Amino acid sequence: MRAARYYDNSDIRIEDIPEPTAGPGEVLIDVAYCGICGTDLHEYLDGPIFCPSATEPTSWTGETAPVTLGHEFSGVVSGLGEGVDDLAVGDHVVVEPYILAEGVDTGPDSVDYHLSDGMNFIGLGGAGGGLAEKIAVKRRWVHRISPEVPLDQAALIEPLTVAYHAVKRSGAKAGDVAVIGGAGPIGLLTGAVLKAFGATVIVSEISELRRQKALESGAADHAFDPRETDIAAKARELTDGKGAQVAFEASSVQVVLDTLMDALRPTGVLLIVSIWGHKADFDMHKLVMKEIDMRGSIAYVNNHPETIELVESGKIDLAPFITGRIGLDDLIDEGFDTLINRNETAVKILVSPND
């Protein structure tokens, strides 16, 4: 089968590799769509990070480069390994793409398996990936979805779950005013979750296309260009002078972090959902004087069922966030290049490995 293989920084190759089979406790999936994630771009530009090098593994699989990329994907069950009797061939599924050490408690009551030692991701650290025609995945990480949810939209459930976990971590609730700094895929999807929760959402974003997408998709009530509008003043204007209850940093940009600190009311919550590749110059005095509660959020933990329910119930429509569909051969030229050099023109680009 054909797959996108990560060899090293700026070295991704489309190659033929052996097809996987479903071993005991595994599910074989024909991949329908796989999204290109910002993490994939970081691996291409600055890696290896989560990905292994040719000599050093980064996950419990022990694999070294090359590895197959892709962790935001949907597909159809095409085979079941021994012991898997609660799924059927033909089921539509998405994957919670974790690679964890043996023995980690991943039961329904766990709130921290995503923070376990050596955590990594399918499609980054090894174990196959969604940028391939097929993948075999442990049953624990496979989630069935309604066939009424189109498979292209289902590929966005993984990043939507990142957003859902961030919103839950923030404690945002109906009636709150939330400010989101950065309207890339995670920022927009965070807005969609907040709106489903009943919050009022303000987006700060310099890209006109992404501001329009925030409004047209219903992910935001207000969207402003911070070069033209004082975001903190707008937040106070919309909250009787108090400021927002919660803010989400989704850009890893210093000036955005500073703006959100100003936009929050005293005792507000600042949730960091972006991945920072550098240290921030943080105003600790302002945090102390406003008693800001600053929290981090990474990935998800037992959040997929609730996120899937939001999509299946129609409370969140993922269609507006898909801005491109390409084949595997166009991964670099039309996928990575667009998102790296013209990212203001796109939100989520999907790859169909079987086309």
UniProtKB/TrEMBL annotation:
Chain ranges of the Enoyl reductase (ER) domain: 7-351
* Matches recorded under Pfam families: ADH_N (PF08240), ADH_zinc_N (PF00107)
Tagged with keyword DNA damage: no
Please name the SMART domains in this protein's record.
PKS_ER
Q: Is this entry keyworded DNA-binding?
A: no
Q: Which cofactor does it need?
A: Zn(2+)
- Membrane-spanning residues: none
Molecular function GO labels: oxidoreductase activity; zinc ion binding
* InterPro entries membership: ADH-like_C, ADH-like_N, ADH_Zn_CS, ER, GroES-like_sf, NAD(P)-bd_dom_sf
Signal peptide limits: none
Q: Which domain of life is it from?
A: Bacteria
- What's in the keyword line of the UniProt record? Metal-binding, Oxidoreductase, Zinc
Record family assignment = Belongs to the zinc-containing alcohol dehydrogenase family.
State what protein this is by name: (R,R)-butanediol dehydrogenase/meso-butanediol dehydrogenase/diacetyl reductase
Q: Which organism is it from?
A: Naumannella halotolerans
Q: What are the top taxonomic ranks of the organism?
A: Bacteria, Bacillati, Actinomycetota, Actinomycetes, Propionibacteriales
